[in-house]
Write a structure and sequence with these properties.
By secondary structure, the protein is an alpha/beta fold. The protein folds into 2 domains: 168 residues, Rossmann fold, CATH 3.40.50.1970; 198 residues, Dehydroquinate synthase-like - alpha domain (Dehydroquinate synthase-like, alpha domain), CATH 1.20.1090.10. Helices cover 50% and strands 11% of the residues. The protein contains 15 helices and 9 strands. It has a 6-stranded parallel sheet with strand order 1-9-6-4-2-3, with helices on both faces. The chain has a 3-stranded mixed sheet with strand order 5-8-7. Helix 7 runs antiparallel to helix 8 and helix 11 crosses helix 12. The longest helix is centred in the middle third of the chain and has 23 residues. The chain is globular, with a radius of gyration of 20 Å. It comes from Methylobacterium nonmethylotrophicum. Its cofactor is Fe cation. Belongs to the iron-containing alcohol dehydrogenase family.
């Protein structure tokens, strides 16, 4: 744990079934003239973007519907150009992590000079962005409450992040009804993404009492509700619990950071177009097992939060239960177990490990000192044993 605790949070949160109905009221609080709704084609087709537009009737609203999964720098540039060209003074980001991160990045690129690449890293954004309201439609990224956005660098086949207080939403609206139509596979992937955020935050070297509380609550909620949300998708209580868990995990990792699950998931996703939640979910138990020796008591706490009975076990045995519980949850919600299942070749291990070693933002918080050899060990374990 760090000796100095810094906790980051957004200004305003509206949460509850039907909260989307508050969108117009929240928009009007800003007194803005022109709004850009940032979303993706799937939400337009599903009618969810239309529901948001209905609630903004009578206001000057333009739509940027072109966000792709794992958004590229080019998409952010196009969105920021739209903000400037239309003179928009408020952004509403509606969608999963991709739409949210695009909205957050476009917000600051509309007010800051230069290229998006200039701002990759920590605290490089100098000027506040266009105000933004974020409305998540998945329960996983927690991006609605974090100061982080992740973008795909297509030419380099990897992903990198921007970290800035100016990426924080001014308002987040969390409505579990917006997640009722999520397919089971998306629910599983985003739910395991939230679990990864919570676990990595809890074992982080930057963990603090407040992030610990949020992380453990998130882990507990996910352990109790993800299976139901995946297999009984219309269960509003499970959906709301998962949205709350994602929020708590976002608060946790927004201040405590993530570790080498994310440090490897970013190049894995960038090189093989694997959705971020799936990449995290597959890597999570393997990174946990490698990290175990550096944070045994904390991993035992994770096991307990996931519902495991660990009081009669040694610290190591309890910690090992955490890995087993994560593997069981992944299997139960249909997550692939090994990188082979994602068509990743063993020959990619060296490039993935080398790329992972450049992710200092994940290396520093990781509970165990990270080396190239260590990352190769993690990746080797993530493949099926060779015959």
């Amino acid at each position: 744990m760090s000796d100095i605790a810094i906790f980051t949070a957004i200004q305003r949160l509206v949460h509850g079934s039907g909260a989307l109905n508050q969108l117009a009221e929240e928009v009007d609080r800003f007194g803005r003239r022109r709004i850009l709704l940032v979303t993706d084609p799937g939400l337009v087709k599903a009618g969810i973007a239309g529901r948001a537009l209905d609630r903004l009737a009578g206001r000057d609203v333009e739509v940027f519907p072109d966000v792709e999964p794992d958004p590229s720098i080019e998409t952010v540039v196009a969105c920021a150009d739209r903000v400037r060209a239309l003179g928009c003074d408020l952004i509403v980001g509606l969608g999963g992590g991709s739409a949210i991160d695009t909205a957050k990045c476009a917000s600051v690129m509309a007010t800051n000079p230069g290229r998006v690449e200039d701002y990759l890293g920590i605290d490089k954004v100098a000027v506040p962005g266009v105000p933004k309201i974020i409305v998540p439609t998945t329960a996983g990224t927690g991006s609605e409450v974090t100061n982080v956005a992740v973008l795909s660098l297509k030419a380099q086949h990897t992903k990198k992040g921007i970290v800035s207080r100016y990426l924080l939403a001014d308002t987040a609206i969390l409505d579990p009804e917006l997640t009722l139509g999520l397919p089971a596979a998306v629910t599983a992937a985003t739910g395991m993404d939230a679990l990864t955020h919570a676990i990595e935050a809890y074992v982080s070297r930057f963990a603090q009492p407040m992030t610990d509380d949020f992380a453990l609550k998130a882990i507990r909620l996910i352990g109790e509700n993800l299976r139901t949300a995946v297999h009984h998708g219309q269960n509003i209580r499970a959906r709301d619990a998962m949205l709350t868990a994602s929020l708590y995990a976002g608060y946790a990792f927004g201040s405590a950071a993530t570790g080498m699950v994310h440090g490897l998931a970013m190049p894995l996703g960038g090189q093989f177009n694997i959705p971020h939640g799936i990449a995290n979910a597959v890597l999570l138990p393997h990174v946990m097992r490698w990290n175990l020796v550096a944070a045994l008591p904390r991993y035992r706490d994770v096991a307990a939060a996931l519902g495991e009975t660990v009081g009669h076990l040694s610290v190591r045995e309890g910690a090992e239960r955490a890995v087993a519980a994560v593997e069981a949850l992944s299997r139960d919600v249909g997550i692939p177990v090994h990188l082979d299942d994602l068509s990743v070749p063993r020959s990619a291990m060296d490039a993935l490990a080398r790329d992972g070693m450049t992710n200092v933002r994940q290396i520093r918080p990781n509970p165990r000192d990270v080396t190239y050899e260590g990352l190769m060990d993690i990746l080797a374990r993530a493949f099926r044993p060779e015959a």
